[in-house]
């Protein structure tokens, strides 16, 4: 009897030690991603079906919409479907699925990504195909000019239209037209360097490097996190960062320097910081067989206005950036690179990127034409 009680106590202590160890391992990484104090305000998978809510778990949605705003509210045209899950992060009140006060634009999106990957990793199909980040003031509308349609018949709901575009082209990054995307010659899709963060769709394999957002310079400007996305997408996926001209994004609010932080449009700061990530001594092989230094992609410009290129469907393009490529092209001792390597090593992320596959395919970037 005494031995039995002692055995139970020992078993309890071991179980308690295991739980505490897991928590201690998890908390530092959560803190490094800048969301140690977030609160889940709803169950991980909501069973309600109201507008902008998560769908029931009967289906396996391909799209997860990650919305960030002060308070939860309806977004015109966007509601849950069997193929579309929606997760809200709010920073002023607890009306969303996640409450994250005092978050920045990038750290809020990273917290949403963390939640989405938690859900995706529990599926046996690789999880969501696309992670769509949007601001809560998004107004997505349709382009009526059929010269900008890639199909003769498109859905009337702009979100369904954009999802169809993602399925048809499967870009690494897809984004709608914005006020500075007004080309003289109508065409269904295009390639552009600069695109706004208001509504971006990321293929799940871009989690191998591009996501999570780089928030290192948020203390200087919230704009810089999107600059990193823009430059990485041009440097890795030139033909597969695709502008969809059949839908158009508008937003009611615009950040200004009068807020709680000061925005900087001096993208030389983000450019020069990102240069420190690279191994200047190593060359890489690109998708078209060239041997280049990735530092060449910076030249002297901080924000390219026009980069040649043609939008392409995915075909055989590999979006998963390999560990071999990262440790060759980048300075693996740099804290930012180490953070990416740690993120990739998380079981839930590896499950999304590779499933049961253990061997990483080689990665050859589709680099934008160098000037």
SSE topology sketch:
Elements lengths: L1 H31 L6 E2 L22 E7 L14 E7 L7 E2 L5 H16 L9 E6 L2 E5 L15 H12 L3 E5 L11 E3 L7 E5 L20 H13 L4 E11 L16 H8 L8 E2 L5 E2 L30 H7 L5 H11 L1 H8 L17
Parallel strand pairs: 2-3, 2-5, 3-4, 7-10
Antiparallel strand pairs: 1-4, 5-9, 6-10, 7-9, 8-10, 11-12
Structural class by helix and strand composition: alpha/beta
CA-based shape: globular
Give unreliable regions as ranges.
1-32, 43-58
Q: Characterize the largest beta sheet: strand count, sense, and whether it forms a barrel.
A: 10 strands, mixed
Distance between the termini: 81 Å
What fraction, in percent, of the residue positions are helical? 25-40%
Look at the structure and give the mean pLDDT. Answer: 84
The counted number of beta strands is 12
Number of helices: 8
* Beta content: 15-25%
N-to-C series of helices and strands: HEEEEHEEHEEEHEHEEHHH
| Alpha-carbon Rg, integer | 22 Å
């Amino acid at each position: 009897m005494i031995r039995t009680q002692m055995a139970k106590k020992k078993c309890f202590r071991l179980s308690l030690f295991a739980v505490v160890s897991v928590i201690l391992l998890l908390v530092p990484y959560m803190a490094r991603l800048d969301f140690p104090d977030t609160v889940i305000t709803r169950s991980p998978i909501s069973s309600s079906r109201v507008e902008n809510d998560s769908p029931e778990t009967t289906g396996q949605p391909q799209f997860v919409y990650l919305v960030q705003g002060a308070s939860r509210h309806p977004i015109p045209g966007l509601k849950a479907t069997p193929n579309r899950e929606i997760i809200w992060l709010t920073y002023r009140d607890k009306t969303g699925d996640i409450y994250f006060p005092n978050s920045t634009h990038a750290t809020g999106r990273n917290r949403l990504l963390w939640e989405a990957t938690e859900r995706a990793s529990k599926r046996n199909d690789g999880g969501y195909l696309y992670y769509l980040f949007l601001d809560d003031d998004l107004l997505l509308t349709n382009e009526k000019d059929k010269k900008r349609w890639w199909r003769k018949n498109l859905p009337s709901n702009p979100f369904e239209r954009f999802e169809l575009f993602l399925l048809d082209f499967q870009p690494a990054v897809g984004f709608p037209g914005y006020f500075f995307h007004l080309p003289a010659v109508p065409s269904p899709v295009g390639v552009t360097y600069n695109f706004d963060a208001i509504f971006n769709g990321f293929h799940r394999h871009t989690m191998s490097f591009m996501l999570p957002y780089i928030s290192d310079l948020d203390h200087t400007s919230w704009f810089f996190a999107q600059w990193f996305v823009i430059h990485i997408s041009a440097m890795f996926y030139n033909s597969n960062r695709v502008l969809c001209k059949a839908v158009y994004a508008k937003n009611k609010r615009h950040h200004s320097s009068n807020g709680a932080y000061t925005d900087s449009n001096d993208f030389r700061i983000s450019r020069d910081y990102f240069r420190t990530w690279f191994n200047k001594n190593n060359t890489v092989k690109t998708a078209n067989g060239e041997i280049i230094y990735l530092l060449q992609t910076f030249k002297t410009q901080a924000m390219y206005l026009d980069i040649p290129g043609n939008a392409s469907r995915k075909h055989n393009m590999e979006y998963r950036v390999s560990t071999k490529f990262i440790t060759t092209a980048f300075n693996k001792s740099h804290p930012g690179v180490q953070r990416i390597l740690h993120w990739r090593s998380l079981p839930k992320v590896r499950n999304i990127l590779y499933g049961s596959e253990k061997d990483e395919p080689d990665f050859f970037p589709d680099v934008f034409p160098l000037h």
